[in-house]
Design a protein that fits this description.
Number of strands: 9
Number of helices: 4
Shape: globular
CATH class: Alpha Beta
Strand order of the largest sheet: 1-9-8-7-6-5-4
CATH architecture: 2-Layer Sandwich
Largest sheet: 7 strands, antiparallel
Length: 150
């Protein structure tokens, strides 16, 4: 079973500038501050350039470490990644998670669409997953609000 969420926002600025800012590892705490049961990002690092196949190491505010493997990186319009190494209790309900950012220039602003698709461990996990995913979505919304202010 899969659950999908999306958030979008119109951000002032050129698409290439927004894309650069969003994909910079040092800005990941700004983009994913956490909400409720979903911890935010404390820090993120990447060895080498941000490109297809690269892996970001992400430390979260609850002390966990996850990997984001970049599977599609097409500046300045698409950035897609898969979360690896999910930790309990999230791993009890979510088998895998994939995020996609799609950016497009709209006049003097950039349209930013952020989607996540979660593959659940079982249909039995759905009630708990829906709560966790709703908190995940709120963190994404807060992240785009932060990006708009930065």
């Amino acid at each position: 079973m899969k659950l999908s969420i999306e958030v979008e926002r119109r951000l002032r600025g050129e698409v290439h500038v927004i894309f650069e800012k969003a994909t910079a590892a040092e800005n990941l705490p700004l983009l994913f501050p956490g909400f409720g049961v979903v911890p935010g990002v404390l820090e993120a690092t990447i060895d080498g350039p941000t490109e297809n196949g690269a892996v970001r190491i992400v430390k979260t505010k609850d002390g966990a470490t996850v990997r984001e493997r970049i599977v599609e990186h097409l500046p300045p319009s698409i950035h897609r990644y898969v979360l690896e190494g999910l930790r309990a209790p999230f791993s009890w309900i979510v088998e895998s998670a994939e995020g996609t950012w799609r950016l497009a220039q709209e006049g003097d602003a950039t349209h930013f669409l952020w989607t996540y698709e979660f593959t659940l461990t079982s249909f039995l996990a759905a009630p708990v997953a829906r709560l966790a995913v709703s908190h995940f979505r709120r963190s994404m919304e807060r992240g785009l609000e932060n990006l708009a202010k930065s």
